[in-house]
Amino acid sequence: MNIMNNRKLAQEKLESIKKGFSAYEESPEIADLIKREIGILQLDVYEDATEFGFWFIPNREK
């Protein structure tokens, strides 16, 4: 079994978001890391928190 570091998982999802793709995360701990980085980088991202997890959807420029 391959166990990945939470920070590494958050960074991989953040890279996806930066490229304009949505990211989904079930873990609240990892979602918090992603939210923190989104705030630091001032990315324009819509966050949808559901009972099952968190969606991070980059807002497209018009």
Keywords:
62 residues; globular; single chain; three-stranded antiparallel sheet; 2 helices; alpha+beta
Notes on the protein architecture:
The protein is α+β, with helices and mostly antiparallel strands. It has one domain (6-58). It is built from two helices and three strands; from the N terminus they run H-E-H-E-E. It has helices at residues 6-18, 28-41; strands at 23-25, 45-49, 54-58. It has a three-stranded antiparallel sheet with strand order 1-3-2, covered by helices on one side. Helix 1 (6-18) crosses helix 2 (28-41). The radius of gyration is 11 Å and the shape is globular. The model has no long low-confidence stretch (mean pLDDT 92).
Percent of residues in helices comes to: 40-55%
> What is the global morphology?
globular
Tally of helical runs: 2
Number of domains: 1
Give the strand line-up of the largest sheet.
1-3-2
What string, H for helix and E for strand, traces the elements in order? Answer: HEHEE
How far do the termini sit from each other?
Answer: 43 Å
Number of DSSP-assigned strands: 3
Uncertain parts: none
The SS-based structural class is alpha+beta
Largest sheet properties: 3 strands, antiparallel
Rounded average pLDDT:
92
Short overview:
With 62 residues, the protein is α+β, with helices and mostly antiparallel strands. It is 44% helix and 21% strand.
Topology:
Elements: H1 6-18, E1 23-25, H2 28-41, E2 45-49, E3 54-58
Antiparallel strand pairs: 1-3, 2-3
Helix pairs in contact: 1-2
